[in-house]
Amino acid sequence: xxxxxxxxxxxxxxxxxxxxxxxxxxxxxxxRYIVLRGPNSPSGRIAHLLELNPNEIPVFGTxxxxxxxxxxxxxxxxQDAASFALTDVFLQIELAKKKTTPIVxxxxxxxxxxxxxEAYLIPFAGDPRIRSVLSQFHKMSWRYFVPGLRxxxxxxxMLQDYLNERRSFYRVTRGSIEYLRSPPFNQARFNQxxxxxxxxxxxxLIDDSLTGRLIDEIKTxxxxxxxxxxxxxxxxxxxxxxxxxxxxxxxARLEAMPNVELIDWSRLPxxxxxxxxxxxxxxxxxxxxxxxxxxxxxxxxxxxxxPPLITPEVTPGVARAN
Amino acid sequence: xxxxxxxxxxxxFRSTLDDEALTLSESTxxxxxxxxxxxxxxxxxxxxxxxxxxxxxxxxxxxxxxVGELVALIRAKKSVTGAK
Amino acid sequence: xxxxxxxxxxxxxxxxVLHALLPGRRRVFxxxxxxxxFYAATSLPYLLLMAVLGMTNYFxxxxxxxxxxxxxxxxxxxxxxxxxxxILAAFKYLxxxxxxxxxxxxxxxxxxxxxxxxxxxxxxxxxxxxxxGCITDAYRQTWRLQGGIAxxxxxxxxxxxxxxGPIPRADRLLPQLITSATPTAEDRIAGLRMIAYGLFKKYxxxxxxxxxxxxxxxxxxxxxxxQAAVACAFNFIQLYADFSGYVDIAxxxxxxxxxxxxxxxxxxxxxTSVTELWRRWHMTLSFWLRDYVYMPMLIRIRxxxxxxxxxxxxxxxxxxxxxxxxxxTYILFGVSxxxxxxxxxxxxxWRSKAFRGIPPAIVAMAGxxxxxxxxxxxxVIFRSSDLAQAGTMYRALFHWNLTTLLAYPPLDxxxxxxxxxxxxxxxxxRRWFVATSTKTYWTPWFTMACAGLILFFGHLGAAHFIxxxx
Lengths: 322, 84, 470
Fold this sequence. Notes:
- The structure holds three protein chains of three kinds.
- By secondary structure, chain A is α/β, with parallel strands linked by helices.
- Chain A has helices at about 10-35, 40-50, 85-95, 130-135, 155-165, 185-200, 210-220, 245-255, 285-305; strands spanning about 55-60, 75, 105, 170-175, 175-180, 225-230, 260-265, 275, 280.
- In chain A, strands 2-1-3-6-7 form a five-stranded parallel sheet, covered by helices on one side. A two-stranded antiparallel sheet of chain A has the order 4-5.
- Chain A is globular and about 75 Å long.
- Chain B has one domain: Orthogonal Bundle (Non-ribosomal Peptide Synthetase Peptidyl Carrier Protein, Chain A).
- Helices cover about 60% and strands about 0% of the residues of chain B.
- Chain B has helices at about 1-15, 40-50, 60-65, 65-80.
- Chain B is globular and about 30 Å long.
- Chain C has helices at about 5-20, 25-40, 45-65, 70-95, 95-105, 125-140, 150-155, 160, 170-180, 185-220, 225-255, 275-280, 285-300, 305-325, 330-345, 350-355, 360-385, 385-400, 400-405, 415-435, 445-455, and strands at about 110, 115.
- Chain C starts with 5 loop residues before the first helix and ends in a 13-residue tail after the last helix.
- By secondary structure, chain C is mainly alpha-helical.
- Chains A and C meet through α1, α5 and α6 of A and α1, α10, α20 and α21 of C.
């Protein structure tokens, strides 16, 4: 006698089929209209990265370079809190292409050690490089291969991203670049944040395993110019920098390489009021920095006889984002 | 002697559980009486011991299943001590 | 493997199918094998520990169930209880010291600071209490051991219940395991229904609300009063959803195998007093404490009268708190419950006189509100990592001026709205759950609706990445 002879077991089959259909249908709609809604959404940028884009100058890094705007032929692939382990994956995808444009990579003195938000990588779990970095941070799941199941637990987070982009709740997006909103500057609050930085257990630390990988990529791709930029940070960050001497030798090594331009702006004398927290500038200052960077990049391209930026002039008022 | 036991017991229950209309039968258990729970159970036993001048052991108290058994236990103890 | 994970359900499905195909005699070996495999997946060394402990209890129970002389019975009983408690104490309350000891054997994990992190054996609290319960029953001669060692070990290690209870009683569970009845169609439907509802509570309600509570508890000093109030309310709601969800999955799983486990929750928010609450909340634990701690203690101090009752209540519930873990927050939580119950008991006659003129429905409602508020407030202590954090949370509730009273940072609105929607879904799903207890033909639709809600509104247990920097 079959073990599961229950009343209406046909109902179970029908109910399951309806659920499966609904799951797959909503997954498809969600992917098309929310997740991969355009080249500037978090997942859309990865899809864009996988295309050739022959004249594009990519920008890779973390939230500190998220607002770097190089105009029409620039594209910003920076991800919040991304460890270099993840940035390296994007770099590898880019370097596999037959291109000769420069690449902008953030040069960090500290690594977040986290993957950041893994949700936007889900549609690309089929790519072995992305799968391996997900596994490295214990974020890989068999569910990512199952349409209908793969966004389980993430639907409302991704919807929030979508709504935020539409309504600019706490981020303002302009094309592929993004500005974080900041509340008005408050010295007492800022002092608290500085206190957190000074008391933090893990100060800045140059991780040789990660910088070594960057150096390898630079060496094996001499046909491309690497523009490395270290963004301004508050002076309190240098308080417990664990291997600051090592920084000097790494920077010397990088500057000696023929296809590297190193822009170390980490010690620019910004006042407290310019900072949102100890490692990010406020929106207005970020916009200024982006302008400066664009001008600097134009100069570099001219000096090296490389094709100039397509829109070297900065669009005025591009980010009075508060 | 037996008549008093039932009446006395009912009085004890009524005063301990604060319910003047309470009645007991052989098979009454804690479930049947509102207010007779694990908290008041031991107070009932204390009142019974005081009134009938008997001492129950822990094992006897824990084994009680209903009022009928309690009455039987009281009578057994009283005949041992010879109390009225 | 947690009992809300995919791999657990794979195991359950395989076991359920094999269980139905095997004859009654063999089923205990299937279930025992599955339970051992389930436990081994967590830790093989601990499985050996539990097996040895289980066997010790088996032989003690066997001795106590035979007509042995009173002297030896006392020794065996005391010895067995002592061994159980020592193992429990060692792994739950002396983990630091134990970790150092075992680090030498490379089982405890010493991290870079040399601090020993030794995880407690899975379900040790539930297991030990189940064992002490049946040993005591055997000693009191209210229960006699039946069945062989396989059934007894299964009683202790039964895989649906080992991780989070309910705490089983030998006189109710062991006979079922020995009989190994074939589950009826009704059993299977009831089981699936409970599992679906339990998973819904866990993923859609508990996991969601927990994120909010975690966020506020992480920095209570910065919470506005409304945030703190919502966090308190969400805290005890998510605790109920989480725990009762897990228990529903456990009871439902057992049901699929034709086994009825004792319930752990019975509509606790209907309670009109804290005393009543503990008869409806974590029932197997509170009944265990009543039968094996409270009653024996009170009987021995009964000459102290009403004071004795109050003392026994406070001590019993202090132990209840301590059972959850070795921290002052847990103990304080337990003591607060005991004090509330004592006050309710001591004021009983006064209250019945004072409230004589008031309609009973109003009195009941007032009692209900008092109970829920009291429990929500004391659960804050339970959840806090230390007393200081609890204090800060309480201060946050009351630290208001006119401008901050209704202040609510806009960042939270979206998820707060979704959390409230999840609670509304729960209200709907629960009505449907209750309805399917009689209209069982709705069960497939109910189950799939729960699955759909879990799929689209569920949150994973691990916190989602929220970008925070300083």
